[in-house]
Amino acid sequence: MTLSGAKISGLPGVNYGQLGNNLPTPTTSVSLIKNLNAKRVKIYDANPQILKALENTGIQVSIMLPNELVTNVSSNQTLANQWIQSNVVPFYPKTLIRYLLVGNELISSTTNQTWPHIVPAMHRIKHSLTTFGLHKIKVGTPLAMDVLQTSFPPSNGTFRNDIALSVIKPMLENWD
């Protein structure tokens, strides 16, 4: 488990990475997170052992649809429904899944062919959550800072030209 902290809205959060060797068990990792008084945790998949360990802790959880599924989910509502039924329904609401993130920093690579699939996948996941009555779970996608063409001063921030109109604009439009 790799822990990196973030503080949003006064609530400390933890990114729970699982790449490495000799990692603690999910139960031990959740104990460490609780000892840090973290109120939010992001995991980079929907690991059932971690979701089970987070049950009844009061910690808000962000889970991810893996990058390799984004393209298929973008064109297949049945797959989106199956993923939600397998990875969210069995754990919610005992595990406080607050966000479902579609992929991880998919727009960072300029050679990435997944860009056109992000927004359709987000819409299909949102539809699946609604189908299962999971209206409180919000849908998003993590973006790295390299999506910005200009970042300073923040008031003049702009997205890169290659994604501004084709990805970011549709991502921000048409959400209930």
UniProtKB/TrEMBL annotation:
Q: Which reaction does it catalyse?
A: Hydrolysis of (1->3)-beta-D-glucosidic linkages in (1->3)-beta-D-glucans
Q: For this UniProt record, give its keywords in alphabetical order, as a comma-separated list.
A: Glycosidase, Hydrolase
Q: Which Pfam families match?
A: Glyco_hydro_17
Q: Which GO terms describe its molecular function?
A: glucan endo-1,3-beta-D-glucosidase activity
Question: What GO biological process terms does the UniProt entry carry, in alphabetical order?
Answer: carbohydrate metabolic process
According to the record, the segments passing through the membrane are none
What SUPFAM superfamilies does its record include?
(Trans)glycosidases
Q: Which InterPro entries does the record associate with it?
A: GH, Glyco_hydro_17, Glyco_hydro_17_plant
Top-level lineage group: Eukaryota
Q: What is its EC number?
A: 3.2.1.39
Tell me the protein family, please.
Belongs to the glycosyl hydrolase 17 family.
PANTHER family (alphabetical):
GLUCAN ENDO-1,3-BETA-GLUCOSIDASE BG1-RELATED-RELATED
Name of the protein described by the UniProt record: glucan endo-1,3-beta-D-glucosidase
